[in-house]
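Cross-check.
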Amino acid sequence: MVWDESDNAPGTLGGRSLVGRTWQRAKVACDLLARIYDNRLDARSLGKPRAHPVDRVDELISSIRRARD
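Predicted model, tokenized:
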């Protein structure tokens, strides 16, 4: 599970709860969420609703995969 410390609740990504994930999937989600936060792409920074545009999430997933290779 990925825990969202700012909300003090289980983390979510793309509107889906990150509870019940394998360790590997939770780690990837955590890395992705960290990049979103570090690059100020989160909804709070953008002043928009909490949903993330799919193209940005896909771009971040691709960059994580490239970094791991």
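The chain has a mean pLDDT of 76. The longest strand covers residues 3-4. Passed to J.P. for a second look.
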